[in-house]
Q: What sequence folds into this?
């Protein structure tokens, strides 16, 4: 289904839309407070941008350096061209270690590769351990946000889910009680796990180590208890040096939730005695995106979610309306690169207001890329009949000033005198759930001429 | 090995011409922070507490007054024999640490801008310790606080595993309401040593 169709489903419940909108704006506001406290915030964003741009321009060599150092550290390194190969590699490691019970911390990459259903089909239990991810896993839904996976659920829905699956008492949606019950439930899973899977926030070429950031401590509880740790990373997670972490850890949490840093920023370099550590490096379309000069910078993304929290469309249409692993503005420039036809409506799910680009900690020109995708999509995919015809009509009209002035006059008059039932009639989608402004008496052109005459 | 060659070849063809590495100039961010003040403020903001101690105080006695009724305590500091009610010698698997109440570790580094404290596994023999314990106590010297992450990374050299910890574990995944105590420690106390 296209974005407008899914968004209209979400919009059937107006109270929920309002609540969702406010909840995300609250996070955006916390981000503002946190970033305004940092002296040189813009310089920090510039650094983030340029370190990523530099890394991408030398990515193959940095990956080789990373692999060499990781191997020396005693980490086993695997390479996957696509999601399917990634899943097979993970499964093979699990099989070699007779691992049947897996705990997983947040990793958008494993979502992208659909690892859970793949492993479950092979009778392996996969438990998502981030609270938000566990909630959506129990609800059999995908995450609707990359940092706040269950932001679309209210406390009463969580209450009901936990009663059904974790045998909790009805608690009128008390977050304290529910979180405590989730801690008990997941503690048991951590203790019994045969292997842990985590994502990677940053991998460092110079040291062969990697960093995982969480607030809950779930990545660490998993990785340090289970005898096997598998960390899955996209090729773009690499940074050249340890000193670059100073820049990115300052940017990440402030942009994501307004915290000065996440509770845990865990630096894995060598496996503990008696434990095994694996890294799976995944391409899955990223090297192709690297070859598109206009869209290359989308690979700078550090997955903070700020562009979603600020986006007027995302806040009012919900993460599921994007029907993609990464929703929101950044998802809308990543997804068309993977499947242009399936995701052709996404770059249009934007007002092009540019707020996403303004908050992005690594200064991705998100809204310009959305605009560029629109050009490509209009040329390459079938457009609705009315849109096509009206574009041709408008194109011609704009080349004929006298005709333009005449039609403008009629339009302004109509807006003033025709009844709403005609103005907002079905073909005018702009009149759907909003009134058009009253038509002014003068056109801009007339106003300007009169003004210069005086 | 999988698709290593293929991936690297594709990147090589598709990457842009080499772009220079930017240079980080930490002085750009310098606000002349009062380190102890800022550090304390940030630790409290993220849900932890800072307790100043002087060198003549006995650290473990102080901790006992903070956590009077705990059963299983473990400290990696010196002179902890009477404090420790758990011996790591008998621990075979990390799981067995599940009931640990209080863990005390020494930290070499704190960061003022975010209240984060660094610990690495040279100071704790089993990696899950600072996460599985109910209450975490970190002992930090006043002179070991640096202003920003940039200075912090200048001092971090060799470690197998290390972590910046900023406050107790937390989550806001249920309707954005903050709950302290997710999977990791339920509380974080930093003893700030006047040395
Ligand atoms: S595009 Fe920028 S703002 Fe959006 S998630 Fe990525 S880093 Fe954050």
A:
């Amino acid at each position: 289904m296209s974005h407008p169709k899914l968004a209209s489903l979400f919009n059937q419940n107006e109270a929920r839309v309002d609540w969702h909108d406010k909840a995300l704006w609250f996070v955006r506001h916390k981000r503002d407070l946190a970033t305004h406290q940092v002296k040189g915030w813009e310089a920090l964003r510039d650094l983030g941008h340029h370190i990523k741009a530099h890394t991408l321009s030398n990515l193959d060599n940095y990956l080789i350096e990373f692999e060499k150092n990781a191997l020396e550290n005693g980490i086993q390194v695997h390479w996957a061209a696509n999601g399917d190969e990634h899943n097979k590699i993970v499964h093979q490691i699990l099989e070699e270690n007779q691992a049947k019970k897996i705990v997983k911390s947040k990793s958008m990459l494993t979502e992208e590769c659909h690892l859970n259903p793949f492993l479950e089909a092979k009778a392996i239990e996969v438990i998502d351990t981030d609270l938000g991810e566990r909630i959506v896993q129990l609800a059999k839904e995908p995450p609707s946000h990359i940092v706040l996976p269950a932001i679309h659920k209210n406390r009463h829905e969580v209450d009901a889910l936990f009663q059904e699956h974790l045998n909790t008492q009805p608690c009128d949606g008390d977050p304290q009680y529910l979180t405590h019950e989730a801690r008990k439930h997941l503690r048991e899973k951590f203790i019994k796990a045969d292997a842990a899977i985590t994502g990677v926030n940053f991998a460092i070429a110079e040291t062969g180590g990697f960093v995982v950031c969480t607030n809950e401590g779930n990545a660490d509880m998993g990785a340090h208890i289970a005898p096997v740790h598998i960390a899955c990373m996209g090729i773009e997670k690499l940074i050249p040096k340890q000193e670059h972490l100073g820049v990115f850890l300052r940017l990440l949490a402030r942009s994501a939730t307004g915290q000065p840093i996440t509770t845990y920023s865990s630096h894995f370099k060598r496996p503990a005695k008696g434990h095994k550590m694996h890294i799976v490096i995944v391409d899955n379309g990223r090297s192709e995106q690297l070859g598109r000069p206009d869209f290359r910078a989308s690979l700078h993304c550090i997955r903070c979610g700020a562009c979603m929290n600020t986006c007027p469309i995302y806040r009012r249409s919900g993460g599921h309306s994007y029907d993609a692993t990464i929703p929101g503005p950044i998802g809308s420039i990543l997804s068309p690169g993977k499947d242009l036809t399936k995701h052709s409506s996404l770059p249009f799910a934007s007002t092009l207001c540019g707020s996403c680009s303004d908050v992005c900690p690594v200064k991705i020109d998100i809204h310009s890329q959305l605009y560029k995708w629109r050009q490509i999509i209009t040329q390459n995919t079938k457009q609705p009949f009315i849109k096509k015809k009206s574009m041709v009509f408008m194109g011609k009209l704009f080349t004929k000033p006298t005709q333009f002035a005449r039609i403008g006059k009629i339009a302004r008059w109509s807006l003033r005198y025709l009844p709403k039932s005609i103005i907002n009639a079905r073909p005018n989608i702009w009149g759907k759930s909003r009134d058009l402004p009253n038509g002014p008496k003068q056109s801009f052109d007339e106003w300007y001429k009169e003004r210069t005459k005086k | 090995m999988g698709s290593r060659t293929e991936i690297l070849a594709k990147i090589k063809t598709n990457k842009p011409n080499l772009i220079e590495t930017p240079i980080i100039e930490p002085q750009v961010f310098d606000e002349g922070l009062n380190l102890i003040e800022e550090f304390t403020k940030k630790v409290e903001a993220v849900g932890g507490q800072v307790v100043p101690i002087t060198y003549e105080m006995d650290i473990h006695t102080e901790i006992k007054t903070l956590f009077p009724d705990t059963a299983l305590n473990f400290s990696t500091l010196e002179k902890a024999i009477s404090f420790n009610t758990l011996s790591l010698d008998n621990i075979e698997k990390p799981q067995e640490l599940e009931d640990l109440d209080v863990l005390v570790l020494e930290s070499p580094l704190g960061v003022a801008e975010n209240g984060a404290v660094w610990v690495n596994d040279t100071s704790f023999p089993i990696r899950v310790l600072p996460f599985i314990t109910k209450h975490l106590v970190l002992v930090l010297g006043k002179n070991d606080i640096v202003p920003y992450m940039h200075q912090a990374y200048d001092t971090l050299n060799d470690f197998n595993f290390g972590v910046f910890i900023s406050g107790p574990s937390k989550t806001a995944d249920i309707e954005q309401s903050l709950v302290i105590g997710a999977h990791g420690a339920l509380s974080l106390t930093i003893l700030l040593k006047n040395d």
User: Anything to note?
Assistant: Residues 28-193 of chain B form a domain with the Rossmann fold fold (CATH 3.40.50.10420). The first strand of chain B starts at residue 49 and ends at 54. Chain B has a mean pLDDT of 93.
